[in-house]
Amino acid sequence: MYKTAQGKTIDMDKLMRQNELVPAVGNARVNARGDKLGPGGKIVKKREDIVAEYYDKNPKAQSKTPSHQVKTKNETPVVETPAPTVTQKPASSAPTEVPVTKKVNE
């Protein structure tokens, strides 16, 4: 949702969905989705086919590893170590001594 200078709200996603089959302005012969158009504005080749054809012709443009698993050169591997376990001392029958400090009046 966007607000204009006059305060009106515009839903750009809704606007794009409504106009995705409308031919684009210019001489590119595509619609707003990216489909290739023929005479009379008929769809000759869908955008998905165009993208698939591109990646078939350019195998280096496609990564075999998903982007979230790609490591950079400076990245160091993270090794997780288990947290140290804290053991409690067994309770003894004798009370422990606590030092007592007294506040001296000034």
Keywords:
two-stranded antiparallel sheet; 8% strand; 17% helix; 106 residues; elongated
How would you sum up this structure in a few lines?
Helix content is 17%, strand content 8%. It is built from two helices and four strands; from the N terminus they run ββαββα. The chain has helices at 12-18, 47-57; strands spanning 2-3, 9-10, 36-37, 43-45.
Which bin fits the share of residues in helices? Answer: 10-25%
**Number of DSSP strand runs:** 4
Alpha plus pi helix count: 2
Note the quaternary state here: single chain
- Element-by-element helix/strand order: EEHEEH
Rg to the nearest angstrom? 34 Å
Main β-sheet, in a few words?
2 strands, antiparallel
Which strand order does the major sheet show? 1-2
Q: What percent of residues are in strands? A: 5-15%
Give the terminus-to-terminus CA distance: 67 Å
Mean pLDDT, to the nearest integer, reads 77
Identify low-pLDDT runs.
none
Can you walk through the features of this model?
The protein is of the alpha+beta class. It is 17% helix and 8% strand. The protein has a domain at 2-61. It contains two helices and four strands; from the N terminus they run ββαββα. A hairpin with a 5-residue loop joins strand 1 and strand 2. The relative contact order is 0.06. The mean pLDDT is 77.
